[in-house]
Structure to design on (503 residues):
């Protein structure tokens, strides 16, 4: 397929064949491949905050080297700074010294960011990141103009300020000179593919977060670009999940390696965790993310559930909450304690926080759609107004908010049989012990690893060998629902949400 834009992209047949014929599920298949001992693959996680590089053993997935470098703060950035951070992390991990031992490399990165370049691949404007909301007006106009159903039918999501198309519309309206010089538009991982291989390329998972790619029909929607940007610029080739983007350029010191297609960060985490249908990842970081893999696309005209693609040829229905770990950080600050003491207080409280319920919409909320909401404390009495119950209510608030997203997934017929709990907030002992009972399903806490980078490394192995390796995952702890207090807490939380916010 040409790197130039056409309405045709990866065919549905190619993706279906990849999903059905390329994914291997038997660990012995990797051993039968006859991989040379000591071969390595490299995974890159280029997130909003930093770039992380890990090298893992191709046969086992065991990490052998790692490096990291920070990204500047802000909601827009010169893409060259991502390249510099990758070089720093790459060298810190010692990748150039590994030479021909490196069989492949792949990049997983933050989604949605607009990387707009001229004919010489030089940026015409700083890249606008997912968390840059200056295009909110454009997003609202898009939904009003076409309607929710038309957008879900076209690209299986509703435009919000995060998505790339809205940022292009902002560029055309507010920076027309820059828009006129734009020749190619890509995403952060696409830019790094260019740096590694010398050519633009992307994959379904990342393209599905642009609002101009249909992850069901697997094609770009050029007419949306023409309507809302005013032109159809060149777009990266959309590679199949096991396809190579080319050879690693000599400047990176391991020119024998192939470059994988790459992916968005959530798809990378799913691949790193070896996620299976019925398993749902709940990631508790600055924000909360709930996602799973699905053989069939999931459609939501409300826009709260995004119908992304995954990195295996399947789909990745995803919901996000704005308020997650920071709710507990704010609770600790309110009680004037550190996080360790906050966790101890939460563990010392009654399981249901003595009837105290916190609705944790401290910064508004996305799931449910309450952008102007604030937090509310319900059921406060002199008897339950203790530091222990306040801490416990904060922990339960985070879990209940994520349980809303799980319930929403289930309402679309997506199986929710087991939760994999990851992210910085999952370090909380009180949260871990309460999660299964609030969610109402078993919860596994995988061992701490860089799962986004690991997923990229797994894809690199796929591109290098033709097989998706099965490395397995190690579980640090497992929990099952304990007693009836979880249902009571959930009922109380849902009732309070409906009374206070009407939904």
């Amino acid at each position: 397929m040409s790197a130039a834009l056409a309405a045709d992209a990866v065919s549905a047949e190619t993706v279906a064949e990849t999903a059905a014929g390329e994914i291997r599920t038997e660990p012995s298949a990797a051993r039968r491949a006859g991989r040379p001992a000591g071969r390595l693959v490299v995974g890159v996680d280029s997130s909003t905050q930093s770039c992380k590089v890990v090298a893992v053993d191709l046969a086992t997935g065991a990490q052998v080297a790692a490096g990291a470098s920070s990204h500047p703060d802000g909601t827009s950035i010169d893409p060259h700074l991502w390249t510099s951070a990758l070089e720093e992390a790459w060298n810190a991990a010692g990748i150039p010294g590994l030479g021909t031992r490196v069989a492949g490399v792949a990049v997983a990165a933050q989604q949605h960011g607009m990387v707009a370049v001229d004919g010489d691949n030089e940026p015409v404007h700083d890249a606008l990141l997912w968390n840059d909301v200056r295009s909110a007006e454009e997003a609202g106009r898009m939904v009003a103009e076409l309607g929710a159903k038309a957008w879900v039918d076209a690209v299986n999501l509703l435009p919000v300020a995060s998505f790339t198309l809205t940022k292009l519309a902002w560029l055309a309206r507010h920076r027309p000179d820059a828009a006129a010089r734009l020749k190619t538009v890509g995403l952060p991982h696409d830019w790094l593919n260019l740096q590694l291989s010398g050519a633009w390329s992307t994959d379904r998972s990342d393209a599905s977060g642009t609002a101009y790619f249909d992850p069901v029909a697997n094609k770009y929607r050029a007419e949306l670009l023409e309507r809302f940007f005013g032109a159809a610029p060149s777009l990266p080739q959309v590679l199949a999940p096991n396809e190579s983007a080319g050879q690693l350029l000599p400047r990176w010191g391991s020119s024998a390696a192939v470059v994988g297609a790459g992916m968005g960060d959530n798809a990378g985490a799913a691949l790193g965790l070896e996620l299976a249908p019925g398993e749902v990842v709940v990631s508790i970081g600055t924000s909360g993310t709930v996602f799973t893999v699905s053989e069939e696309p999931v459609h939501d005209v409300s826009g709260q559930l995004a119908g992304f693609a995954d990195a295996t040829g399947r789909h990745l229905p995803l919901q996000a909450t704005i308020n997650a770990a920071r709710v507990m950080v704010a609770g600790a600050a309110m009680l004037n304690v550190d996080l360790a003491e906050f966790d101890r207080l939460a563990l010392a409280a009654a399981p249901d926080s003595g009837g105290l319920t916190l609705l944790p919409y401290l910064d508004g909320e996305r799931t449910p759609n309450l952008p102007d909401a604030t937090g509310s404390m319900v059921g406060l009495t002199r008897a339950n107004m203790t530091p222990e119950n306040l801490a416990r209510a904060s922990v339960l608030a985070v879990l209940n908010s994520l349980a809303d997203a799980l319930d929403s997934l289930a309402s679309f017929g997506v199986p929710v049989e087991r939760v994999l709990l990851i992210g910085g907030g999952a370090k909380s002992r009180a949260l871990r012990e309460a999660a299964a009972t609030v969610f109402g399903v078993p919860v596994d806490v995988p061992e701490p690893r860089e799962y986004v980078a690991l997923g990229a490394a797994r894809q690199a192995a796929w591109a290098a060998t033709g097989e998706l390796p099965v490395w397995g995952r190690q579980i640090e702890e497992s929990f099952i629902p304990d007693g009836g207090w979880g249902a009571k807490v959930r009922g109380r939380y849902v009732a309070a949400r409906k009374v206070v916010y009407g939904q």
Notes: Residues 1-37 have pLDDT under 50 and may be disordered. The chain has 17 helices and 24 strands. The longest strand covers residues 50-57.
